[in-house]
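From the pipeline queue, job 12 of 40. The input is one protein chain; the requested action is below.

Action: predict structure.
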Amino acid sequence: MSPVRRCSRTACGRPAVATLTYVYADSTAVLGPLATYAEPHCYDLCAEHSERLTAPRGWEVVRLSDPSAPTRPSGDDLEALANAVREAARPQDRGDGPRGDGPRGDGPRGGGPRTLDPMEVGRRGHLRVLRSPDS
């Protein structure tokens, strides 16, 4: 007997990566990680067949994730990452008063109030909003 279990689909010889079990009472097909032992009423499937699995009309497919398998980032993960980058890019409030704390009381470096580029409309982190040259 081969140490590697093969896909149960006819004419498919690829190695199995998932096990399919039917729960007839609940009209549910359960697809999970490859079972430790081959069971007579379970079907071992390769990666391609497990991804393309569909159930009969009226049945539900439950896909159990493999905790050891690498996961893809979800939309929530990407949004959280974008929010973290935005937060890190925000200027930090140093507690300076409206006039600052420079030697002359007119800014953090004492060289007078900070002037913006005449083309610059606003700033957020390292990004600048510039006025259109036509206006």
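Job complete. The CA atoms of residues 17 and 46 lie 5 Å apart.
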